[in-house]
Amino acid sequence: MTKSGGSKHQKRVAAPRNWVIARKQHTFAYRANPGPHGIEASVPLGILLRDNLKLGNTAREIRIILNKKEILIDGRIIYNPKFPVGLMDVIQIDSINKFYRVLPDSQHNLKANEMKKPSKITKACQIMNKSTIKGGITQLNLHDGRNIILPKEEGIERRYNTKDTLIIELPSQEIIQHIPFKEGMYAVIKAGRNVGKYGIIKSFQWRFGPRASTVTITSPEGEEVQTAPEYLFVIGEKSPWWDAKGDGN
Fold first, then answer.
1. I want to staple 167 with a disulfide (CB 3.0 to 4.6 A). Which of 11, 72, 78, 177 is the partner?
2. Does residue 155 have a pLDDT over 60?
């Protein structure tokens, strides 16, 4: 009989580029399970804890830590070292009273960046698309698999557009801030050649046909960088939203 389904193993040399691991030191690595983020847009929790945060030296030590119920992702206790952790996820480690936000760096890695202890857990989520469900109610579909159902209010669906960012409180998913995807906003490049760069959106060039649309951002150092609109994640007005909230990195 032929074996059904995909491989359950992940070789290090073939792991996604955003994983912070030594590629040739060992043969295998954790394989991310299905979850809120796709395998190419996430890192298994065990790799973040062991190879990024250095909380353990072996997979066995990481399992011991997870079994103590000390690790929370977006306010939820996670036991599985293969859980996929992605962009803007908030990692809480109770035993050492530390919090981290997952952000991209210029080496194409997704890394846990330490942040100040927040008064409440909030997270930035990008709107990937909108859909209409039963009763004519609008549902917002976010980048981490969450869905938010808007109140049945006339015209409310026009306030939110694809690529806009919502700052939500967890676990209630209450919307506490809406950041539109437009010129003048502060954004981070989440993919592509210039991944990990931050800046103010200067202008858009929308094109149809073989030449893709582009957006230009200006970094705090004055450097102008062009990228595709789908590679941008808006994170604030003039500066990252977490600076205004007092729980910055």
1. 177
2. yes
Does residue 77 sit in helix, strand or coil? Answer: strand
In which band, very low, low, confident or very high, does the pLDDT at 47 lie, cut at 50, 70 and 90?
confident
First-to-last alpha carbon distance for the chain, in angstroms, is 52
Tokens in use for 86?
């992605």
50 touches 25 (CB < 8 A): no
Share above pLDDT 90 across residues of the chain, in percent, rounded to a whole number: 45
Q: Give strand pairing partners of 204.
A: 215
Q: How confident is the model at residue 21 (pLDDT cuts 50, 70, 90)?
A: low
Residue type at 162?
T
Is 18 inside any structural domain?
yes
Asked, for residue 5, whether it belongs to a domain, the answer is no
Range with lowest mean pLDDT among 71-75, 109-113, 161-165, 205-209:
205-209
Residues 20 and 99 in one domain: yes
Tell me the Ramachandran region of residue 145: left when phi exceeds 0, alpha when psi lies from -120 to 50, beta otherwise.
left
Q: What is the extent of the structural domain holding 85?
A: 10-115
Q: 170: closest CA among 99, 231, 103?
A: 99
Q: How many CA atoms lie within 13 A of 47 on its CB side?
A: 28
**146 pLDDT more than 90:** yes
Residues 38 and 101 reside in one and the same domain: yes
Distance of CA 106 to the CA centre of its chain: 15
Q: Which residues contact 42 (CB under 8 A, 6 or more apart)?
A: 32, 35, 84, 85, 86, 110
